[in-house]
Amino acid sequence: MRLLLIDTCGDVGGVAVSEGETIAASETLPERGSSSALLPAVSRLLKEKGWTLAGLDGIGVVAGPGSFTGVRVGLAAAKGLCEAANLPLAAVSRLAVLVEATALEEGCVVLDAGRGEYYVRFVRQSEKAQDALCRREDLLARAEGNRVVIAEPKLVEVLASLSPELHLLSVGQALPVMLRVLQEGGSDVATTDANYVRGELDIYAKVPGALAKAGPV
C-alpha cells in the first residue's frame, strides 16, 4: 500500500510517502510556511519515487489539534487531492499519533493549546480515549502521578511538576495510525472536519473543572 502523509499542525510540518509500513521518503516543511510549500513538496516526493498521485492507495493527514491555520491547510490539501484522484482518506488525531509513537498504555499526552489551556488525551484501560481541552489546574490535578508525554519543548518547564517525557513528532510517526484508519474503512472525504477540540469550549466554560471533548478517537 502506497500512501501520502501530511502533517501541518505544528510549528514545523512534514510530508512523506510510504510503502507498506515503511516511510519511503519525507520532507520537512518550513516553519510557518506550510501553505505555500506543501503542494510543491508533494510533487517532489512523488517525482523522486517515480509515483503518481493516481497510483497511490490513499492519503493520510494529521487533522489536529494544533495551529488553526496549519490544520486547515493540511486537511484542505489532503481532501482536495483525495477528490482529484478518487483516493481514500485517513484523518487522524495528533494526540493519537503521540500515544501510538510512545506506546503509552496508561497516562496522558499533552499539547499546548495556548491561553493557559492544553489539548490532552488520557489513556486508561477503563476509559475510551478522547481528545480534550483542559485548563492547567485541571491537568495538574488529574495527571499527577501518571506518565505524561509532551511533544513541544516549551512545555518541559511549564509542566515540570508532572515530570513530562518529551517526544518530538514527525509526520512518519503517524503512519501506523493512518494505516489502521484505512483498514477500518477510512475517513469520509466530504464530511471530515478539522479536529480543533475547541468545538465544545462553550460547554467547557460553563462547567468549572470539566473537560471539553471533541475530535476523532
TrEMBL record:
<dbReference type="InterPro" id="IPR000905">
    <property type="entry name" value="Gcp-like_dom"/>
</dbReference>
<dbReference type="InterPro" id="IPR022496">
    <property type="entry name" value="T6A_TsaB"/>
</dbReference>
<dbReference type="GO" id="GO:0002949">
    <property type="term" value="P:tRNA threonylcarbamoyladenosine modification"/>
</dbReference>
<dbReference type="Pfam" id="PF00814">
    <property type="entry name" value="TsaD"/>
</dbReference>
<feature type="domain" description="Gcp-like">
    <location>
        <begin position="32"/>
        <end position="145"/>
    </location>
</feature>
<protein>
    <submittedName>
        <fullName>Universal protein YeaZ</fullName>
    </submittedName>
</protein>
<dbReference type="InterPro" id="IPR043129">
    <property type="entry name" value="ATPase_NBD"/>
</dbReference>
